[in-house]
Amino acid sequence: xxxxxxxxxxxxxxxxxxxxxxxxxxxxxxxxxxxxxxxxxxxxxxxxxxxxxxxxxxxxxxxxxxxxxxxxxxxxxxxxxxxxxxxxxxxxxxxxxxxxxxxxxxxxxxxxxxxxxxxxxxxxxxxxxxxxxxxxxxxxxxxxxxxxxxxxxxxxxxxxxxxxxxxxxxxxxxxxxxxx
Length: 180
Prior knowledge:
Structural class: alpha+beta
Number of domains: 1
Helix content: 25-40%
Oligomer: single chain
Number of helices: 3
Number of strands: 6
Strand content: 15-25%
Largest sheet: 6 strands, mixed
């Protein structure tokens, strides 16, 4: 004959309060894990949307510069001014500067340039965009974190082996330089 202590004997199918509490905690834990997975997925998607939005904004600025270069008439540019900052900095020919343009900077490596900013580097002669994310562009073979643009005469652009011509006007070309 089997002997069961009075506190241990239960009818079949009846759970103790401790067991039902443990199962309830397990359900809550599973629910928290599922919610965390969904949140991580959505955060990843939001990050992708931010990258795409930044890329489109930069391409929009570059296309604006391309249009301005093509609209530049001969009277706006002379061969004597080819070396001046006015005609090297693409922002100077734009009707409206980008909202995140920091201006002319002579030593950007000494400053903490915030990501998502345009600035003109007087040492290299390039208008630089420092991206928040590495981005893909149609005129680059790989993802880049910095874009360098410059204005050059048509002759300079054709003879340069380190730049790619994005657009040309009558005497002036917008070029993309080496990327870091």
